[in-house]
Amino acid sequence: MAGGKKSQINKYYAAANGYRGFVSCFDEIFPSGRFDRIYVLKGGPGTGKSSLMKKAAKSLAENDCEIDEIYCSSDPHSLDGIIARLGKKSVAIIDGTAPHERDAKIPGAADEIINLGDNWDTRFLAAQREEITDLSREKSKAYSAAYSYLGIAGKCADYIFGTIKNIFNKNGANNKAEIIFEEINAVAYSEQRSMLTSSFGRYGHYIVEGLNSFARREVEVCGDEFATTLP
What we know:
Largest sheet: 6 strands, mixed
Number of helices: 5
Shape: flat
Strand order of the largest sheet: 1-5-6-7-4-8
Structural class: alpha/beta
Distance between the termini: 24 Å
Radius of gyration: 20 Å
Helix content: 25-40%
């Protein structure tokens, strides 16, 4: 039963679209040995992967679990994964389809595959095959165009950063970094992780909010925003 306290919820990306293309931290965030169990969801678009994870996150949060909600790099309304922690126990549920395809790395013992595609209406989808194929082709073209525009924006950003580099107070920045590192080292946490906090997707440049105020440390690197958190 839920204990009545408000669970902590961290929100971030495990992958992101940026000036340098697609960046993924899935292997860093979801190593099999870190969790008591990893459930890998399979199945194409519309099979309910994100909806299942949202419902699971809500239910687990109501039972006092600390939750990480990992959002889709292209659609911040969808989830790519969740992590639930309660005491020393931790469980992850992740989308194991492209572009961050994942299979069970320790099958049965630590990882389990759940294929939501088993519930496809194959007969209905086969009747829409031509339309689905055309839409998939248009989607690929749109992604290619988007990455092209992002690449151009990246070159502009590089020029701007290069221009202001000569007036940047590097010593002041290093001193500030040392202060932050001292604050981090003063706290007895066992692990430090990097998390992506923004991505370019269907709604433009989208920044998720939700890392707790102490843990959030944002820096801009090559046009992509990162946050360092101490779990």
